Amino acid sequence: MAVDKDKAPRDRELGMDRPIDRRDFLNGVAIGAAALSGVMGCTPSTGVADAPQDRPGYYPPGLTGIRGNHPGAFETAHSVRDGTFWQTAQMPHDTDRVYDVVIVGAGISGLSAAHFYRAARPDSRILVLDNHDDFGGHAKRNEFRLSGRLELLNGGTELIDSPRPYSAVAAGLLKQLGINPVALAKASERPEVYRSLGLGPATFFDKETFGTDRLVVGGPAREDGEKVDWTSFLAAAPLPENAKRDILRIETEDVDYFPALTSAQKKDALSRMSYGDFLAKVAKVDPIAIAFYQKITHDEWGVGIDAEPALDCWGFGFPGFQGLNLEPGATPRMGNTAAGYAEGGSDTFHFPDGNASIARLLVRALIPKAMPGRTVEDVVTAQANYAELDSPGAGVRIRLSSTVVGVRNIGDPTASRGVELVYVRGGGVFRVHAANCVLASWNMMIPYICSDMPDEQKAALHKLVKVPLIYASVALRNWQPFKKLGVEIITAPGSYFSSARLNWPVDIGDYRSGRSSDEPILLFMVRTPCMPGLNERDQHRAGRAELLGTSFEDFERNIRDQLGRMLGGAGFDPAQDILAITVNRWAHGCAYEYNPLFDDFDTPADRLPHVIGRKRLGRITIANSDSGAAAYTDSAIDQARRAVDELLAIKTAQADPPPRFPVRIRAERAGRAAV
Fold first, then answer.
1. I need a labelling partner for 355 at 20 to 30 A (CA). Which of 33, 176, 180, 668 fits?
2. Tens digits of per-residue pLDDT, 117-164?
3. In sequence order, which residues have a C-beta less than 8 Å from that of residue 258 and are 6 or more positions away?
4. CA-CA distance, 475 to 467, in Å (whole number)?
5. Rounded to the nearest 5°, which phi and psi values hold at 138?
6. Contact 406, 675 (CB under 8 A)
7. What is the spatial distance between Cα 35 and Cα 47, in angstroms, rounded to a whole number?
8. Do 437 and 407 meet the contact criterion of CB atoms below 8 Å apart?
9. Could you tell me if 408 and 451 are in contact, meaning their C-beta atoms sit under 8 angstroms apart?
10. Strands 620-622 and 419-425, how do they pair?
């Protein structure tokens, strides 16, 4: 892509013209890397022979460039959505065996479904299909070798954490996998590494929003429980005096903005206004102060304060409510996250690669040869053997880079004799049959691939719009600038990325975090694209389009520019100090959670979209955290258990190949261009 002449000098200054580690990428796809290309020598009878995942050197966690919803993972699905796929699709080839269950989606929900199904029926034959080139779904692993040392960062799901304690099902699965969050946190997490050096939070004020570029140490991101010295922080901030006074009032003063209302009435009023409106219209905060708070909700909900209820923000501990004297506890008009945290929350633990370690432990339990080792500690440094994932004759097989384009019951769903699925892999179209199917994939895609689903159910699934986001992993030559500044985490309320933080210090098994600021380190950066003024679902749709339309070069330019501006005063040089960049692009990221500003909280529980959407259809059941309307790992596990239980409750089907006839002919007879 040609660089704008006006950008060229700045690009050279940022180092855009210099190679970085594994920089042979075109928007994240390795050029000439046959082991990870979309080309494969699949045999017509199976669609599995000589697949990339079976070749030596195949190891997606080590890739840089664009990951997450990477190129090649979504284009086929989009052509199905747009109604163009079946216009040119070749006739499907039949695979060589019939399965007891085919699971669509190799994320934590899909892998958990495989685990639960096999536990109930140990001799069952299970196939897991996933459109990505790696397993784990949103729980992805970013792996780097920096100065000879393994460095890990989560490319998606960050940690074990939920607004409520894990259910018996989810907690039981973690226990089976050897995960004790409390014990692991006590033995492995090392927050003292940064605290011993006096590192803490800082806020970056950008010139486009606040008139000048300035990094101010201190601010609202403290994670050690210490109080913020707001007077000193605001004295150094490039803000007008009115904005400073308003922020100080919101943060420190006990003002009751609703003196005539009871606690219950106040909560009800707060549930019907955004946090932005509370600050602007009730607390009468200066517009520049509003800009200071605008992105405070991004990391948790994926939208700004314009689209998040004030009551939820109170429940999450945001400022401005301390004078309202609200009674503790949740209310019916609170979103799932805020309601849960208002009552407590779950135990927490951060693996070095986030919850990718949970996915890896599930793979080890299902296919031991694919994941060497025996303990929860050694899985962190284990080198996965992808060639074992889809081994012929194995009881469980995981087939990557396989996009399902059609699924249907054989016969009437009320008396289904099995399930037929069609998927695309390496340019070929293949068909597989099973007694049962679990769709543990993005729920909003299901109506496009399951065409005989009732219209009401399709409409419900379309409402489960995922939250788009970017998690960028940036390898730095060292972290001396952070030490000089006394900074561990930076919030940037007006910038492209809303936050940047040094990698979490965790020691587990043979994995060791760095101790010296002279050593390389990984930086974690977050962006959630929003369009203030739209409702939440439309903001997510607009953000998804933005992410899919942004090139790796543009992401890289923004990363280099922002880091240079934030840290340049401490000697950071983006052209010299950035070693590698992985952009985890989640155009379809976290599950949608109901928002009282845009969703009817008087809807009966059995009429909620996720409940209608997850109804069993013959021998097809639906999992994924979407079907729990909660963006947490425990929800993904719980929904997998429910989906499997629904199948197990059906009278066992004879897993024989059903009558076969051409997909295209069948589609034409049905009067629709889909399976």
1. 33
2. 999 999 999 999 999 999 999 999 999 999 999 999 999 999 999 999
3. 265, 266, 269, 282, 324
4. 26
5. -75, -10
6. yes
7. 16
8. yes
9. yes
10. unpaired
